[in-house]
Amino acid sequence: MSVPPDLRQQYLQTCQNLSQPENHFVARVLQEADESDNIRQAKGITLKIAGNNRLVPVQRVTDEDVQVLASVLRTAVFVTGLDLRYNILTDVGVRHVATFLQENSTLRYLNLMFNDIGTSGAELIANALHSNETLLHLRMTGNKIGNKGGMYFASMLQVNCTLEKLDLGDCDLGTQCLIAIASVLTQNKAVKAINLNRPLLYSQEEETTVHIALMLKNNSSLVELHLCKHEIRSLGVKRLCEALYENCSLRYLDLSCNKITRDDVKFLGELLKQNQTLEILDLNSNRIEDDGAIYLSEALALYNRTLKALSVVSNNIRGKGLVALSQSMKINMELSYIYIWGNNFDEAVSTAFSELIQAGRLKPNCTDVEPYEVDGHVHLAELSHGLKKHYYWTPSYGEVNNTAANASLAIAAVSQYF
């Protein structure tokens, strides 16, 4: 068996060779990797060089730092994941990352979330992935690559046959590249999860949602789809539901922070009566109100037996709708996770969910509320639980991938990386 490389020593030597100052945070992470049991046993390790780590002193990674790091990792075959989120990489530094991707054959996960990468950097990464055959999961979240940068990734997806999870959320994608990505995904059979959250859309016609719906009719490999902040209204919901009658692969649908109303939820209710694959439905921060909650509860109580998690956080639902959802859980034993905080609770709601929790039907780590009693009256307190609480940040204590806070990973995880 080959001897694992001394990453820290190689890093210090490369800094000297390139006349670059040492980044003490990078050196510390590499030293911890050298001491890891996984590297001794020739198992893959992930280097977590996140600039938002609040547990240790952090010196954020610069373009010069990543040049040294890429040089060191060229021979580090045991490194299968690289987390560089929340650093200060620009298009200049990404050039070194792109070269590394073209030469590397072991990296499975790359997180470049919330750096300062623009359109040119997106072109470099996308072009590198034309030839890379090992990377499975790429997070570009929060880098302002724009519509043109999104088009480079659409072109890449026409060629790349290995990437399984792509996160382009908060990247300022435009209408043109969203339509291009949707068109490519009708043919691409490798991608299992894609995040297209918060594009910049200037039309009220929902063209992008219509094209994504057309893609879902033909795609048989996509498992997870995030469409947060897409300005989705009645037409968009209707087209998506029509597509999902024919789709037999999608398990996780994120429609949070859109403009879905109680009338639009009728389409989702009818879909749930027949759909046999959807396991997670995120309707967080819409406006489904009591009527919408009742439509969902009827479908869940009488028909659907596949949905495992439902989020209706902040939907202006009052007692009638929330009690209906609690009653559906008494009938439907498959629905195990429900998130309701941010709605209008009365004592009937507090009592209903308190009974579900006390009876063991709803586990405390599978919801975002906890009952407590004052002067003989039951109330609900908020818990920091949800489908993806740690999407943008990591906690300052406890497990990063805590299943109570990131339930979607436990229910329908596409890969081991969050």
SSE map:
Elements: H1 7-17, H2 24-34, H3 37-40, E1 45-48, H4 63-73, E2 79-83, H5 91-103, E3 109-111, H6 119-131, E4 137-139, H7 146-159, E5 165-167, H8 175-184, E6 193-195, H9 207-218, E7 224-226, H10 234-244, E8 252-254, H11 265-274, E9 280-282, H12 289-302, E10 309-311, H13 319-331, E11 337-339, H14 347-358, E12 369-374, E13 377-382, H15 407-412
Parallel strand pairs: 1-2, 2-3, 3-4, 4-5, 5-6, 6-7, 7-8, 8-9, 9-10, 10-11
Antiparallel strand pairs: 12-13
Helix pairs in contact: 1-2, 1-4, 4-5, 5-6, 6-7, 7-8, 8-9, 9-10, 10-11, 11-12, 12-13, 13-14
> In percent, how helical is the residue content?
25-40%
Approximately what portion of the residues adopt beta-strand conformation? Answer: 5-15%
Biggest beta sheet attributes? 11 strands, parallel
What is the ordering of alpha helices and beta strands? Answer: HHHEHEHEHEHEHEHEHEHEHEHEHEEH
Strand order in the sheet with the most strands: 1-2-3-4-5-6-7-8-9-10-11
Structural class: alpha/beta
* Quaternary structure type: single chain
Give the overall shape.
Answer: globular
Strand count: 13
| Radius of gyration based on Cα positions | 23 Å
Total helical segments = 15
Distance between the termini: 31 Å
Low-pLDDT segments, ≥5 res: none
pLDDT averaged over residues: 93
